[in-house]
Hints:
The protein has six helices and ten strands. The chain is α/β, with parallel strands linked by helices.
Amino acid sequence: MQAISERAVRWTDAEVTLEGRMMVPEVARQAPRPAVLVVHTIRGRGAFEHERARALAELGYVGFAVDLYGEGRYSDDHGEAGAWMQALLDDRALLQQRMAAALAAAAAQPEVDAQRIAAIGYCFGGLCVLDLARTTPGVSGVASFHGLLAPPPGPPAGQIDAQVLILHGWDDPLAPPEAVLAVARELTAAGADWQIHAYGHAAHSFTNPAAANPERGLAYEPRADRRAWQALNGFLAELFD
Length: 241
């Protein structure tokens, strides 16, 4: 296993300071490597996103756990974190601007091949990476894990050049089957190269071992988690190799 270095990366957007964590594999110090943004859940950038960014670095990519709330804010209080998320859901243009700023921050790092950047996101972050593909050039591909799927209001997106992978729990109450069909139609109309993997008996947050609220449709499903990570590995290999 190669050595991984970690550092904070700060950037600004609309006078808000954002703070991410970048995981850099040793190989990236010899020549720039593809990077993968990891976009957080409702709670903000935390240990889960750091672990996924580190796992990506172990695969040879630069992993970048981004911050969309500002100052690296994180909260386990659903009400507090929900207010932060809702502010961006209510202003999708601002959300898209934040995602574009995070992409630019990654591209500016010396270890990153700026022409080869992908983004993955979980739950709220899944919606964020889909919006990145919908609105921002320069991202090679995106992968949404049990993400929200609804497009922003207004006219449909134009051409989507990024490759798109959606990893979905079929029993997810936040993205019912009709939402899956709708996003498939949207991506087809936009000319995207897309894939949707749906996992039976998997609900929302199926990748998170801490998810344990089946009454609300939140539950860890280890088989779906393993299969989704394997699917991501194949997606990134095809994208970058």
